[in-house]
Amino acid sequence: MNPPTPSLTFLDRDHSILAFNERVLDWARREQVPLLERLRYLCIVSSNLDEFFEVRMAPHLAAFNANEPRGPQTADDYVRLSAQLHELVAQQYAIYNDELLPLLQKQGVELVSHGERDAAQRRWVKAFFEREVQPLLMPVGLDPAHPFPQVANKSLNFIVRLKGRDAFGRENEVAIVKVPRVLPRYVRVPGPKGSKKTVFVSISSLIRSHLADLFPGRQVTEFSQFRVTRHSDLAVDEEEVKNLRTALRVGLQHRHYGEALRLEVSAGCSEFLSSFLLEQFALPPQALFRVPGPVNLVRLNQLIDQVDQPALRFEQHTPGWPVQLVPGQSFFERMQQGDVLIHQPYESFDAVLAFLREAVNDPDVLAIKQTIYRTGSKAEMIELLREAVRRGKEVTAVVELKARFDEEANINYAERLESVGAQVVYGVVGLKTHAKMLLVTRREGGVLRRYGHLSTGNYNPGTARLYTDLSYLTADKSLTADMEQVFLHLASQSRLPRLKSALIAPFHLHKAMLERVERAGLAAQSGQDARIILKMNALTDEPMARALAIASQRGASIDLIVRGACILPAQVPGVTDRVRVRSVIGRLLEHSRVFYFRCGDEEELWLSSADWMNRNMLRRVELAWPVTDPALRQRVKDECLSAYLHDTRDAWLLQPDGDYRRASDAIEGPGLSAQAALMARYGHRSQE
User: Fold this and answer.
1) DSSP 3-state helix, strand, coil percentages of the chain (rounded to 5)?
2) Which of 58, 307, 320, 420 has CA 20 to 30 A from 543's CA?
3) β-pairing verdict for 365-372 and 340-344
4) pLDDT (tens digit, 9 = 90+) per residue, 47-93?
5) Do residues 173 and 161 make contact, with C-beta atoms less than 8 angstroms apart?
6) How far apart are CA 90 and CA 575, in angstroms?
7) What are the Polyphosphate kinase C-terminal domain coordinates in residue numbering (predicted)?
């Protein structure tokens, strides 16, 4: 492979992640979006930024504190990222205070501060505080015998400066009040008499109004709410531990108290208190965020859930039954006729649950194998697998204990499955199992036959209503045999034979995708029509990005539909002229991964659980499988590729300098939305 031209410079990954959040924040600005949904997008951005700090910021802060590089990170990177984060947070609170709160008030939804409450509301709040809140608060006055307490990651706290002496005559002037997580963050209070308004008070406002009650005999002179964000990416040396599940349980206990990375305080917090907190958490000034509002916007989801005004929400989308399936028909009979594609959430994920349910209840089914990465809080699939064990079937579950922020849930699921006799394994040491597979083995006429389900997403009924994903049901002998081999490899650690249809990371997927990119480039160089279209969440693997640049220089036409971070610049003269990158940010979270290659008259289309990231290709067990049925391949091209390439409402176009521009800027009128069109199409079918 020829080296790229010297002028190829990759875009910064962290900058790209924050640029993605700026695009999500745009939905909170859109006047045509229902008001509560605009507020929810604000919460989504806050949640994303929390995760950014928890996972991405520690090495940057380490480089800044050492004033020397830590790997690829430098002190300048930390300063630059901090400035970008401060600007993004400032935009969030400007939208919240200047746009959303006034509009909510016009719709009869009010968040009232102490000064805005009438006498009756103040009495109600006081009674609530004394009955429900004060008994759970334990103020800690700081002195040599009472050092600064451990403050959990992302928890709400107050710091208070006091005047006067304590019960022992000492002038310890600083106290900390932790707010327990069991307390609701937004409490609905009675509105004015005769009013239909929906009125809320935040727990922080409620407590600050009664701080003096917590310190009898002392005068509160200064106070501020505060929240610290800590490093939360669990690091366990799997080669050294004897029991990964036990090691992770211990790690989870410490996650809430990792290295401090960000400090949020009220905008009016005094220099004395903010400096005191920065010193306690050993943070530089850039880590201090003064916010004009609640320090945790994510918790506004509690307020949203309590407002009963359907007009302020998106019109509910009801997924239809998959078009290739007939309600009541046996899945096994249908899959014998050919592969089935389910496009979620336009089509219902319930069909996947129905497939597993039929397998559990079918006496001819002998074995069920499934990977478990994220299954949601209700975890109906876990209960179905437990029932399968009780019915005498062999059940193997590959549970990924290291699924970020789902570790504890998956440990519990593993224990529940083991308690009834399921075979539970945790995949390969050092690798996350991110492939989504469900394999059913059935006795038919004296022979065993396999039926499989593959997915670009998770086995989570909740997110299946919010994420676009592709589910694939197949009885293809070659593909299901590959799935069997992958399960055998994960359980036994035996050498994986060459697969017949599928591609698996970390063994084949990376190399195979690079080969296909190169093949397209060489085909274009020889005068053939060559096209690459890739749809994924992120493109951050440098060898793959470099290969795409080379293929474009050789003449291949490349379209990348990348929702989040993308390090490959688009349409840089002489470097990536033929590379176009678009990010579609719609009502639904784009999650499907589709890889399309055409060289002359030959075309391939692959579905996968993997993004084009180094970790996915080389440090995870991922799967990609081909769509060989011409009709299904055309359907994926139409619904997942062409529709998004023609989106002019929700799409953003990457510029050579790394900035994104709205596709709608180049047109007049409302534009076309791929998601809206698909929801309308499948919504119509569900009503037929």
Assistant:
1) 40, 25, 35
2) 58
3) unpaired
4) 999 999 998 999 999 999 999 888 888 899 999 999 999 999 999 99
5) yes
6) 36
7) 331-494, 503-665
Only one residue has tokens 């802060």, namely: 61
User: Rounded CA gap, 10 and 409, in Å?
Assistant: 37
Pairing outcome for strands 109-111 and 432-433: unpaired
Instruction: Give phi and psi for 125, each to the nearest 5.
Output: -65, -40
Over the stretch 226-247, which tens digit does the pLDDT of each residue have? 999 999 865 544 444 444 445 4
Interatomic CA distance for residues 10 and 8, integer angstroms: 6
Distances (CA, A) of 394 to 44, 258, 354, 473: 40, 41, 19, 21
Name the nearest CA neighbour of 16 among 455, 592, 560, 596: 560
Rg of the chain over Cα atoms, rounded to whole angstroms, equals 27
The side-by-side arrangement of strands in the sheet containing 140-141 is: 140-141, 174-178, 157-163, 219-230, 260-266, 288-291
Kindly name the residue from 60, 231, 343, 434 that is annotated as catalytic.
434
Locate tokens 């308004």: which residue? 197
Clarify whether 231 is annotated catalytic.
no
Instruction: For the chain, list the domains and their CATH numbers.
Output: 13-312 (3.30.1840.10), 318-499 (3.30.870.10), 505-684 (3.30.870.10)
Say which amino acid occupies 200: F
Residues annotated as binding site for ATP?
A: 48, 467, 563, 591
Q: Which residues contact 119 (CB under 8 A, 6 or more apart)?
A: none
> In sequence order, which ranges of 346-401 are alpha helices (DSSP H)?
350-361, 380-390
How distant is the alpha carbon of residue 279 from its chain centre? 32
Q: Which residues contact 116 (CB under 8 A, 6 or more apart)?
A: none
Q: Residue 86 carries which side chain, given as an amino acid letter?
A: H
Q: Which of 514, 659, 667, 517 is nearest to 578 (CA)?
A: 517
